[in-house]
Amino acid sequence: MDRLEATIERVGPDRVPFVLITIINNSGGGQPVSMANIRATSRLLKRYGIPLVFDACRFAEHCFFSKEREPGYADVPVREIARLLFSPGDGCLMSAKKDGLVNIGGFLSVNDERWAQAIT
Ligand SMILES: Cc1ncc(COP(=O)(O)O)c(C=O)c1O
Question: What sign does the dihedral 71-74-77-78 (CA atoms) show?
C-alpha cells in the first residue's frame, strides 16, 4: 500500500488512469491477492479518484483459495466471495481460457458509461 501510494504521489493521480490488480498472477507463484489487500487498495484509490480494474483470470480459483485460506472467509460461499471481490471494481478484463473454460477469447467489462462509450 505504501509503495502504491508513494507512486501515485510521485507521478500525480491525474497521470494514473486506473490501477489493475491481477488477482492471481502466475509470475507471483499463482497465489491469490488477499481480499484484505483488495479492500485496502480500493479504499486508497477512492481517496485519489483512481478507478480499480481487475484482471479476473482464475477468479473462481481465487475465491476458492480465499475461502480455504483467508481468515474470515471459511463460512462464506464462493459465489459470495466473488461478489465481494468484484464489487469495488470499476471494470475487469479476462482471458476466458482460464476459469471460463473456452478455447479462445475473453472479455472486457466496465462499470462506467463514459468508458463504455469510449471503447465502442
Ligand atoms: C493472469 C493472466 N492474465 C492474462 C493472461 C493472458 O491470457 P491470454 O494468453 O489468453 O491472452 C494470462 C495468461 O496466462 C494470465 O495468467
Answer: positive
Nearest-CA residue for ligand 1 atom 2 is 57
Q: How far is the CA of 48 from the centre of ligand 1 (A)?
A: 28
Report d(CA 64, CA 79) in Å as an integer: 9
pTM, full prediction: 0.92
Going by alpha carbons, the residue nearest to atom 3 of ligand 1 is 57
As for ligand 1, residues whose beta carbon falls within 6 Å of it are: 22, 25-26, 55, 57, 95, 97
CATH number for the domain that contains residue 105? 3.40.640.10
Secondary structure letter of residue 103 according to DSSP: S
Beta bridge partners of 42: none
pLDDT tens for each residue of 72-112: 999 999 999 999 999 999 999 999 998 878 899 999 999 98
Domain count, the chain: 1
In this predicted structure, what is the pLDDT of residue 7?
98
The domain in which residue 101 lies consists of: 2-111
The answer to whether residue 29 scores a pLDDT higher than 90 is: no
